[in-house]
Design a protein that fits this description.
Order of helices and strands: HHHHHHHHHHHH
Distance between the termini: 47 Å
Helix content: over 70%
Number of helices: 12
Largest sheet: none
Radius of gyration: 19 Å
Number of strands: 0
Structural class: mainly alpha
């Protein structure tokens, strides 16, 4: 089999494997688009934001913090904070990307999201070679990216017609996907202690502090516990 045929086959395999998650993206991308319009953004603004910042969690935070005029420094800081996990995810990809041309590395990092990252590492563990498959990863990532951008834009367009879509429970799809991803990364109760501490601190912060400080408090608490556990391991 020629190299180009193998590349295409792996790309399509990744794209097909991502279809269930692509479908799960649809409801909460619609919610994001509709919420953005309700917060005063215009369709072009939310479309550009999701196309340039492919990270749903930080986009929901940005939309919830959106005001007129927007507090850009606060939004940028919170986006950086929520997306800081991508630093560790990118670091985990480094051994598999270091032999590739820079244009392929940049493409892989731009399209990186929790779902495609988790899918590709799970696929690598299942394969006989235990190797990260770049074209499988790009196929899955591109499908997820296009689904997210297209349906968020559709959500912005139809949002004013259907009102508050959270009343239909669509936003729960966002939580459900993350729970499935956590299940895939589960390594036992001890390893999950930083998650639990981060969750508890975030919930308490949400209840007693205004704004989005719960994101910062939860993230820092989780990082501190993970650092201490690694130090004393």
């Amino acid at each position: 089999m020629s190299c180009s045929l193998s590349t295409r086959k792996e790309f399509i395999r990744g794209l097909v494997a991502a279809i269930p998650i692509m479908i799960s993206f649809i409801p909460f991308s619609l919610v994001l688009g509709a919420q953005a319009i309700q917060r005063g953004m215009v369709t072009g603004e939310i479309g550009v934001m999701v196309a340039m910042n492919f990270a749903g969690g930080s986009e929901f935070v940005a939309v919830n913090l959106w005001t007129s005029p927007p507090h850009l420094l606060l939004i940028a800081f919170m986006t950086l904070l929520v997306n800081s996990r991508h630093i560790l995810m990118g670091a985990a990809l480094t051994p598999y990307l270091k032999e590739l041309p820079k244009r392929k590395v940049l493409l892989a990092l731009f399209f990186m999201c929790d779902e495609s990252w988790a899918m590709s590492f799970a696929e690598a563990k299942k394969s006989t070679s235990q190797r990260f498959n770049y074209h499988y990863y790009i196929g899955a990532s591109l499908g997820l990216y296009l689904t997210w951008v297209i349906f968020t834009t559709i959500g912005a367009l139809v949002g004013p017609l259907i009102g508050d879509v959270t009343h239909y429970g669509f936003d729960m799809a966002f939580v459900a996907v993350f729970l499935v991803l956590l299940k895939g990364m589960w390594k036992g109760i001890i390893a999950a202690i930083p998650w639990l501490v981060s969750l508890i601190v975030a919930v308490v912060s949400y209840l007693i502090l205004p704004g989005a400080w719960y994101v910062l408090c939860g993230a820092i608490a989780g990082l501190i516990i993970a650092f201490l556990m690694a130090h004393y391991d």
